[in-house]
Amino acid sequence: MFETIVPLFPGIPGGPELLVILLIAVLLFGANKIPQLARSSGEALGEFKKGREEVESELEEMRKGRDAGEEAESDETRTRDAEPESS
């Protein structure tokens, strides 16, 4: 008889929940502080992304350096093995 509506994304709040969260935020911080809080949160998120990208690029450079070092070692080993030993 009664069907239960299952949300597509169970962890994400819907419309009524977002209104309650917004109301609580206005009561806690005041209407004047909310734009400032949103702005500073956006800046913090941007800094976090920038730092993450820097770390990822450094790791990629380290991987490339390691791969180039291994390639040089294998070339050196092949050259050494190809040379006849003189006694």
From TrEMBL:
The keyword Transport applies. Residues 41-87 are annotated as: Disordered. Keywords: Cell membrane, Membrane, Protein transport, Translocation, Transmembrane, Transmembrane helix, Transport. GO terms for molecular function: protein transmembrane transporter activity. GO terms for cellular component: TAT protein transport complex. GO terms for biological process: protein transport by the Tat complex. It is found in: Cell membrane. Part of the twin-arginine translocation (Tat) system that transports large folded proteins containing a characteristic twin-arginine motif in their signal peptide across membranes. TatA could form the protein-conducting channel of the Tat system. Belongs to the TatA/E family. This is Sec-independent protein translocase protein TatA. The lineage of its organism: Archaea, Methanobacteriati, Methanobacteriota, Stenosarchaea group, Halobacteria.
